[in-house]
Amino acid sequence: MFSEGRATLFIIDAATTQTRQLKKVVAANARRQSSGLRVSHEPFEVRIWTSVLADKRGYHDVDNIAKAILDALTGVVWRDDRQVLRLISERFEGDANRIAVRATPLAGPLQPIELDATLLELGTLEGHQS
């Protein structure tokens, strides 16, 4: 774990295709890396980068990785994963099977954003209904 200001960065060198096992690996790594870290009650932004080897078969979908990580960091970084207000999860081909997670406390609740008009028009595309 590395702290950058108020952000916390976890690096997990792990390769498993079983979500239940991934959650256990992430939780064990996070607890080991988080000595001195106190559980927070603040809202968070979380970024997840997942590197997988090119020949790795059966790797997780980004949403399964995110779910395992958010669950595993509950009680370590935040009290409840409902405190995560913004989540970005990416998976890419890399030189190792590795997950990096940056958890950044937010100054407060996120402000609502206005939906882009082109997004609202998606329902008008052929084959889509609103």
Give a short summary of the structure:
The chain is built from three helices and five strands, in the order ββαβαββα.
Describe the structure.
With 130 residues, this protein is of the alpha+beta class. It has one domain (2-124): 2-Layer Sandwich (60s Ribosomal Protein L30, Chain: A), CATH 3.30.1330.70. Helices cover 23% and strands 28% of the residues. The protein contains three helices and five strands, in the order E-E-H-E-H-E-E-H. The protein has helices at residues 19-33, 62-72, 117-120; strands spanning 2-4, 7-12, 44-52, 84-93, 98-105. The chain has a five-stranded mixed β-sheet, with helices on one face. A hairpin with a 2-residue loop joins strand 1 (2-4) and strand 2 (7-12). Helix 1 crosses helix 2 (62-72). The radius of gyration is 17 Å and the shape is flat. The mean pLDDT is 82.
Radius of gyration, CA atoms, in whole angstroms = 17 Å
* Terminal residue distance: 44 Å
Name the CATH homologous superfamily. Holliday junction resolvase RusA
Low-pLDDT sequence parts: none
Q: Which word captures the global form?
A: flat
CATH-defined topology: 60s Ribosomal Protein L30, Chain: A
Instruction: Kindly report the average pLDDT value.
Output: 82
Specify the helix fraction band. Answer: 10-25%
Strand order of the largest sheet: 1-2-5-3-4
CATH first level: which class? Alpha Beta
List how many beta strands DSSP finds: 5
Query: For the report, how would you describe the main beta sheet?
Result: 5 strands, mixed
Number of domains: 1
